[in-house]
Amino acid sequence: MTDTFILRDAIPGDEHLVLRFVRELAEYEHLLHEVKATADQFRRALFGPRPDLFGLIVEKADEPVGFALWFITFSTFNGTPSLYVEDVYVRVEHRGGGIGRAVFADLARRALARGCERMEWSVLDWNAPSIEFYRRIGAQPVRGWTVQRLDGEALAALAT
Description:
Blueprint: E1 6-9, H1 15-28, H2 39-47, E2 54-60, E3 63-75, E4 80-90, H3 99-113, E5 119-120, H4 128-136, H5 152-159
């Protein structure tokens, strides 16, 4: 098998592939039961008139082997946009060949091209292989910050 791979922007029609990769990632993270997204939601988010989400597909020998999803946030402290990496996933059998590094390098170039001063993402505490990879590419944990989430009934209650 060749070690050559390509990175390409997601295009209309990739929404089913994106959903498949999201489900594979969720299964790896033991969170498949939480996936509610549909291909139609990804189509609208990625390819609607004002995309909320951006995507990248990794192909090796014309076979999709990974993906990345990201969106732009804004740092009020820096006064600049930031690139938030929502998901990066490479199928297990294709890891260790430089794909993950290439994906993050591509996202870093995109961030800088948009005037972003940083990229951020979350990682599960137990995911030691990913954390080790992030340290190798120079990422550091944000000390003193804990992710907060408001959803479901609590979100609805607050809205009313």
